């Protein structure tokens, strides 16, 4: 199985574990999409760029405040949440969930996915 197929399988496993997810993607820290699993109508190039930017900002905040290496961050809105996870040194996992999603389960599954993705990349 190719790396691309392994990454897509990891995203599909995450979405199966938390079926209400609107989508998930893996991108480079430069903002380029690597693999995606989204509902229709999502501009993955834009999401990849924003996820990489959020990751970079989170890392700068962590460094500035001396709170250790950044591992994840989230953005919450009235209709949902975006969770951003560090994937190795050069990757980012972005997960989009509707409001009301069980964040404990989502974090558990997404952290496992991020670990798997790090191994694949």
Question: Overview of this structure, please?
Answer:
There is one protein chain. By secondary structure, this protein is α+β, with helices and mostly antiparallel strands. The chain has one domain (3-120): 2-Layer Sandwich (Beta-Lactamase). The chain has helices spanning 3-17, 44-64, 103-120, and strands at residues 23-28, 33-38, 72-77, 80-87, 91-98. The chain has a five-stranded antiparallel beta sheet, with helices on both faces. β1 and β2 form a beta hairpin. It starts with a helix and ends with a helix. The model has no long low-confidence stretch (mean pLDDT 91).
Tell me the helix content.
40-55%
Q: What is the topology, as strand order, of the major beta sheet? A: 2-1-5-4-3
Rg over C-alpha atoms, rounded to the nearest angstrom: 13 Å
Which of globular, elongated, flat, extended, rod-shaped describes the shape? globular
Structural class: alpha+beta
Q: Write the CATH architecture name.
A: 2-Layer Sandwich
Beta content comes to 25-35%
Q: Give me the CATH superfamily.
A: Dynein light chain 2a, cytoplasmic
Number of helices: 3
């Amino acid at each position: 199985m190719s790396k691309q197929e392994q990454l897509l399988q990891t995203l599909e496993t995450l979405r199966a574990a938390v079926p209400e997810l609107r989508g998930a993607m893996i991108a480079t820290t430069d903002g380029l999409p690597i693999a995606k699993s989204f509902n229709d109508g999502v501009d993955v190039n834009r999401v990849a760029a924003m996820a990489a930017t959020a990751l970079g900002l989170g890392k700068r905040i962590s460094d500035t405040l001396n709170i250790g290496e950044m591992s994840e961050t989230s953005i919450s809105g009235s209709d949902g949440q975006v969770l951003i996870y560090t994937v190795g040194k050069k990757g980012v996992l972005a997960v989009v969930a509707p409001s009301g999603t069980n964040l404990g389960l989502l974090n558990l599954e997404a952290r496992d996915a991020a670990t798997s993705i790090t191994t694949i990349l």
